[in-house]
Design goal:
Keywords: Lyase, Metal-binding, Zinc. InterPro entries: CENP-V/GFA (IPR006913), Mss4-like_sf (IPR011057). With 122 residues, this protein is mainly β. It is built from one helix and eleven strands; from the N terminus they run E-E-E-H-E-E-E-E-E-E-E-E. The strands form two sheets. It has an eight-stranded mixed β-sheet with strand order 6-7-8-9-4-3-10-11. A three-stranded antiparallel β-sheet has the order 1-2-5, with no helix packed on it. The N and C termini lie far apart (28 Å). The mean pLDDT is 95.
Length: 122
């Protein structure tokens, strides 16, 4: 399995190889502010499974295109979180959990098949 994606202008591209460790949604304030959205969804891979080309800038491990500003991925503790919205197509991977549900927007409908954690996963 391979998953390809990148930024809006195409300057940053990535290819993830193999199955992700997990796919989830986050409602924490950091993720919401970084994406300018009510929540954020990502597929988490082992860092070595993802190859990135193109120049990025980063802030606290969150990488974005230096040219168009699109957020593409985040790195932490040997893992890389590939933003589902950056994938071509973005709907091949389905989240199975939600983090920070205490911050979840009340107007969001339930997402079928996800486990909600009040904060981080146990």
């Amino acid at each position: 399995m391979t998953y390809a994606g990148g930024c809006q202008c195409g300057e940053v591209r990535l290819v993830a190889t193999g199955a992700p460790r997990r796919v989830g949604i986050c409602h924490c304030l950091d993720c919401r502010r970084h994406h300018g959205a009510a929540f954020y969804a990502a597929a988490v891979f082992e860092d070595a499974a993802v190859q990135v080309t193109g120049a990025v800038r980063s802030y606290e491990g969150r990488a974005f295109c230096r040219h168009c500003g699109s957020p593409v991925y985040a790195r932490s503790e040997g893992e890389i979180e590939v933003h589902l919205g950056a994938l071509d197509p973005p709907h091949d991977l389905v989240p199975t959990y939600e983090l920070w549900c205490i911050r979840r927007a009340e107007w969001l409908p339930p997402f079928a098949g996800t486990t909600c954690y009040a904060r981080n996963r146990d």
